[in-house]
Each structure stands twice: as C-alpha cells, then as structure tokens.
Amino acid sequence: MDYVYIDESGDLGSDSDYLIMAAIIVDDGAKLDRIINKTRRDNKKQLGNSNEIKGTETKPHIKKKILKKLNKIDYQVIAIVFDKKNKYKIKYDCNNNLLYNIVASKLAEELPITNKTSIIIDKSKNKEKFRQEFNSLFVPSLNNPKNHSITIEHEDSVNIKGLQMADIISWSVYQSIEHENNEYADLIKNIIVKRVFED
C-alpha cells in the first residue's frame, strides 16, 4: 500500500505570487513518523512546546536535518507551481475555494497511482461540504489507469507526521520559487516540480 501526504505553501490571496502544492509518496507512513519523532527527541529543547514541526516556524538547521534524513528512505516528491498571474487561464468564474480545487486537480494528474493508496491532505477545508467538493474533483483527476483502491482523508497536521513532512517540503519549494532560495529544495533528491497553467 502507498501513502500520499499533501500540503501547500503560499495562498490564493494577495500575500504571495505563487501557490505551491506538494505531495510525498511512501510505501509506509511509519517511515516518516520515525523521522519526525526522532527529530523531536533530538531537538527537544529547541522545539520547546511546539505541537508540530512546520516550515514557517521550525529553526533552519532542524528543517535541513529532516530533509537530509528523508533521503535515507525511498520516497517520491511531486510538487506543482501555480503562478497567480495566470488565474485568467482557468476558464472558470470561480471563487478561491473552487480555484484551489482546480489547481489541486493538476497535482492529482501528476500522482502515479500504482497500488492501493491512502491520500492524506492537510485540512484546509473547514466544512464537510467543501471537503466533498474537493474530493469530487481531485479523485477522478488522479493518474490511476488501473483503478486501484483510493481512500482520501483531510486531517490536522498536528496529528499526522507525514503531513508535517509535506509541510516542510511544500515550504522548501515555496522558498525556491517565491524567494529564489534553493538551500532547502536542493536537499530533496527525488523531486519533480511542474508549473501548471503556464504557456
């Protein structure tokens, strides 16, 4: 069974030029649990009372250690980059909630489903209706030609270590694209980054 953890960095408002969505695929979610748990044990004093490891809050050297540890396991990262100046290319008269789902469906198209798969997404949708709308567009867009069994869950990253890893990864790609700072993204060895809705 495969596990896919998805998170995003940036937004669809005015605070950034780009929205980044990243997925990390592993054959055992416990591998990511062990990396995050060991990092918490080894850096207990520096992490303090923080409930989770996050790209925006965790100290740089700790994030770099996590990304280096990631390269000791089998994984694949797929990230998409949406430049918000290209909103006009999406032929929908839609709000940001629907726009988010449309961009996420482009990530789904890039995810190779080759096994029974559990997809866990950081819970950004605060209503069940919005989560169902997301699922109804995302799941049919998956690259799943053999129709492998799929489950999809929206979870709080505080409780899911794989989502904390996805957060660090999406943040790292965001730093590379939004701020031209590659020091984190360059540590992710098995990664594909694709721009969507580009010419």
List keywords for this structure.
single chain, 199 residues, alpha/beta, six-stranded mixed β-sheet, 6 helices, 6 strands
Question: Gist?
Answer:
With 199 residues, the protein is of the alpha/beta class. It is built from six helices and six strands.
Give the uncertain stretches in residue-range form.
none
Percentage of β-strand residues = 15-25%
Number of helices: 6
Alpha-beta classification:
alpha/beta
- The tally of strands reads 6
What does this structure look like?
With 199 residues, the protein is an alpha/beta fold. It contains six helices and six strands; from the N terminus they run ββαααβαβαβαβ. The chain has helices at residues 29-42, 44-47, 60-70, 96-110, 128-141, 161-179, and strands at residues 2-10, 18-26, 76-83, 117-122, 150-155, 191-196. A six-stranded mixed beta sheet has the order 5-4-1-2-3-6, with helices on both faces. α1 (29-42) runs antiparallel to α3 (60-70), α1 packs across α6 and α4 runs parallel beside α5 (128-141). The radius of gyration is 16 Å and the shape is globular. The model has no long low-confidence stretch (mean pLDDT 93).
Blueprint of the fold:
Blueprint: E1 2-10, E2 18-26, H1 29-42, H2 44-47, H3 60-70, E3 76-83, H4 96-110, E4 117-122, H5 128-141, E5 150-155, H6 161-179, E6 191-196
Parallel strand pairs: 1-4, 3-6, 4-5
Antiparallel strand pairs: 1-2, 2-3
